[in-house]
Write a structure and sequence with these properties.
single chain; alpha+beta; YefM-like fold; disordered N terminus
Amino acid sequence: MDSTPDPHLAPLTRVGVRDLRADLAAMIRRAGGGERIVITVDGQPAAILGPPSAAPDLSLETLFAAGLATPPRRDRPTGQPEPVSAPVDIRIDDVVDELRGR
């Protein structure tokens, strides 16, 4: 079993753009070492600095942790809506006239 920690499961570090500019070389070394760093502008996530990889991790958990996506407010899906039967022998212009009150 590989004991190398998965960088996608590690908590993301948040760094403001001003701090990034002040210590860019160190941030790039950290990213090269496998750490993923969320770059913020005015406290809002703007980018993720991380190690190069063949396929970026775009899982919902990673996006939630980075603040780039918002978790759903509901605990579970509401289900499928009930189907509505619509008449098939009606003309669209008659429907429009009815909606317009003619």
